Amino acid sequence: MIDLHCHVLPGIDDGPSTMDDAVEIVAAAAQAGTTTMVATPHVSWDYPANDAALIAGLVADVNAAVAERGIEVEVKAGAEIALTRTADLSDDELTALRLGGGRWLLVEPPFTAASSGFETLFSSLVNRGHEIVIAHPERIVAFQRDPAIIERLVRGGMLTSVTAGSLVGRFGKDVRRFTLDLMRKGLVHNVASDAHSVVRRPPGMATELECEGLGAHTERLTLDVPAAILNGTSIPRLAEGTMVPAGQGGRLGRLLRRA
């Protein structure tokens, strides 16, 4: 699997504090079946020092530490860029922050309920020549209140990446319901871990999909689509109504939702 969204660089944001913590996350991801991770630290007003050069250096350090431990996972550079920060960044910097050096930016909308200006800011990025993956839309209050916004953005060519934990209730029942609704409507293109630690926000994807009866879509959501995003090839898409959970997840789903 390819994890397009994870916080695995030490001491740079709200992810791991130390290199040992970072390597622990990578080791847990490897155990869960992940072979490639894209490090996506926050590039936002909360972390103004984070830039492409700092991220690239830390990615090299993490890869060296991971190789020393014999863990067969490659970490690539990327970023989770706050939508409100994008106008402040040059196109050269944004290009350097793209996922794995490809064509796509991972952009995080504000968590506020107000959606004023969202679509204008997204359109501005597209007009500047960038392709957009929207980070965890299921957790954005404005989208929950007005799902038509995310529908318009997807129709306009943007992709979405939901957090695996949202499927099993780690962010609450309302977020879980909205995530499954987006799945049914064909508005989800990728599932990523958004890992921050091995316990609080672990680097899992396949187990969460399986427990919600979506195991049949694991390869597409965690390998085919992210590989296309990294390689710049055509994005596999599914029609509305294709991703329907097969059952309610049973005992495994209930246990994960309590975690």
Describe the structure.
The chain has 259 residues and is α/β, with parallel strands linked by helices. It has one domain: Metal-dependent hydrolases (TIM Barrel, Alpha-Beta Barrel). It has 11 helices and 9 strands. It has helices at 19-31, 52-68, 91-96, 118-127, 141-145, 148-155, 164-167, 173-184, 206-211, 218-231, 250-258, and strands at 2-6, 36-39, 42-43, 74-77, 80-82, 104-108, 131-135, 159-163, 190-192. The two termini are 23 Å apart.
Q: What is the β-strand count?
A: 9
| Number of H- or I-type helical stretches | 11
Please report the distance between the alpha carbons of the first and last residues: 23 Å
Biggest β-sheet, characterized? 6 strands, parallel
State mean pLDDT (0 to 100 scale). Answer: 93
CATH architecture: Alpha-Beta Barrel
Helix content, binned percent: 40-55%
Estimate what percentage of residues fall within beta strands.
5-15%
C-alpha geometry: globular
Strand order of the largest sheet: 3-5-6-7-8-9
Assembly level: single chain
How many domain units?
1
Give me the Rg, rounded: 17 Å
The CATH C-level class name: Alpha Beta
